[in-house]
Write a structure and sequence with these properties.
The chain has 258 residues and is mainly alpha-helical. It contains ten helices and three strands; from the N terminus they run H-H-E-E-E-H-H-H-H-H-H-H-H. Strands 1-2-3 form a three-stranded antiparallel sheet, with helices on one face. Strand 2 and strand 3 form a beta hairpin. Helix 1 runs antiparallel to helix 2. The longest helix is centred in the C-terminal third of the chain and has 30 residues. The N and C termini lie far apart (72 Å). 37% of the residues are buried.
């Protein structure tokens, strides 16, 4: 059983395990309270640790604890956030199994690295899934089979081009403006090829994978949990993303409708 730590090197390893777990959860869309709870659970599983503090905001995790009258501290910054609930679930499950004391710190860190490396879908699979969802959203707004096919291809091409732009690490506003711009341009092109297709349904279906619905939901949950800083930041982030998408769609569409 691994219920205690015996040296400063083990304390540093515990700090690395905890910070890695928290960073993975926050980066992949977990709520702040869940990140803090996971970090505290991992550290408090060691009975000779005192003064445990885990503080998370929208893109930063800070961890501190006292071992043998020495303070150990770590801060991790998250530059980009995604929505991969598979990783959140895997890390949450890992933390609950780790507190049973049957896993060493080195094995725990290796397990987290495996989660980081192996969880989630490949990029092409994610783009394909988003395009398929777009066609179904189009059907939800009473689009016919041709409009569903059009939404599929518009969403697929737009997501692919946006993923290429995102690798240049520009601002998220530019990325989302570009997404909306691509959707609008390709929808206009398809309508010019077939005037019977309703451009509104194609655009609505294609834009749905980019809409920050989960980000806004998490922001509201953080606000209701008392994490006002993270909640307000997350809500503003979601509003800015939605604004960028709307501006990107509106710019070529306004020229087309003139």
């Amino acid at each position: 059983m691994y219920k205690t730590i015996d040296s400063e090197s083990e304390a540093m390893l515990l700090l690395e395990v905890t910070s890695t777990a928290c960073q993975l959860m926050l980066k992949n869309g977990a709520e702040v309270y869940r990140v803090e709870d996971t970090g505290e659970r991992i550290i408090r599983s060691k009975t000779n640790i005192k003064d445990v503090e885990v503080y998370a905001t929208f893109n930063v995790v800070m961890i501190s604890f006292n071992f043998n009258k020495h303070i150990f501290t770590s801060m991790k910054k998250i530059k980009t956030r995604t929505n991969n609930l598979m990783v959140v679930d895997a890390v949450n499950t890992f933390s609950r199994e780790y507190v049973l004391g049957k896993t060493s710190l080195s094995d725990a860190l290796d397990e987290l690295y495996e989660i980081k490396k192996g969880m989630g879908y490949k990029e092409f699979t994610g783009i394909l899934g988003g395009a398929a969802a777009s066609s179904l959203y189009c059907a939800l707004f009473l689009g016919d089979i041709y409009e569903m096919i059009a939404a599929f291809f518009v969403a697929f091409i737009s997501q692919y081009l946006t993923s290429r732009l995102a690798k240049r690490k520009l601002s998220f506003f530019v990325d989302n403006f570009f997404s909306g711009f691509c959707i609008s341009c390709f929808a206009i092109l398809i309508v010019k090829m077939n005037s019977k297709i309703d451009i509104d349904k194609v655009i609505i279906g294609s834009i749905m994978p980019f809409v920050p619905g989960l980000a806004m939901t998490n922001a509201v949950r953080d606000l209701m949990s008392g994490d006002s800083t993270t909640g307000i930041t997350g809500a503003m982030n979601a509003i800015i993303i939605a604004t960028a998408l709307a501006c990107g769609v509106a710019f070529p569409l306004s020229l087309y409708l003139v």
